[in-house]
Amino acid sequence: METTATDRPALEPLQLRAAFGQFPTGVTVITTCAPDGRKVGLTANSFSSLSLDPPLVLWSLRKVAPSRPDFVAATHFAINILAHDQIDLSRRFATPSADKFDGVLHVDSETGGVPCLDGASARFVCRNVGHYEGGDHLLFIGQIEQFDTFGKAPLVFHAGQYRAIADHPDLFRVV
Q1: Residue closest to 28 by CA, chosen among 101, 82, 96, 89
Q2: Rounded distance between C-alpha atoms, residue 71 and residue 91, angstroms
């Protein structure tokens, strides 16, 4: 007897989210410029490298996000990998507000003119090469046109909390 998707019990969204949360991620702020010139940004941990040749990255955005039209229309976006000391920026860009950039130090990229946050661990400026539907999210793919690394430890998110990276004790064990 075959089992179809409708025969399976529904997955509980909160339990599924908790299970996803067991995978530690970095924390990013994705930024762009809206067609009217406004600077737009949001916190995301759905960032991943995709390809080295060509250099591609991906990230996802909820379909109901207010900034969806701005990112869909954007020619470029920046992925700012937050440093361990940027929890406040993560929270700021995760919260709806009129101007998330008010008082935030940033520069506009040479490529695409998108805002790049000061103090990040790394950042990628990407040409927006496409977006694709994936359930309740859109997947954005960007081709990296410029990147920088700054040698700062990253901000980490795990099980619903911010975390810091520490060396594993086995690294110091003498064999």
Answers
A1: 82
A2: 20
Per-residue pLDDT of the chain (175 residues; tens, 9 = 90+): 565 656 777 889 888 888 888 878 899 999 999 999 999 999 999 999 999 999 999 999 999 999 999 999 999 999 999 999 999 999 999 998 878 999 999 999 998 999 999 999 999 999 999 999 999 999 999 999 999 999 999 999 989 999 888 888 887 777 6
The secondary structure of the chain as a DSSP string is: ----GGGSPPPPHHHHHHHHTTS-EE-EEEEEE-TTS-EEEEEES--EEEEETTEEEEEEEETT-TTHHHHHH-SEEEEEE-BTT-HHHHHHHHS--S-TTTT--EEE-TTTT-EEETT-SEEEEEEEEEEEEETTEEEEEEEEEEEEE--PPBPEEETTEEE-----GGGG---
Has domain 26-161 been given CATH number 2.40.10.340? no
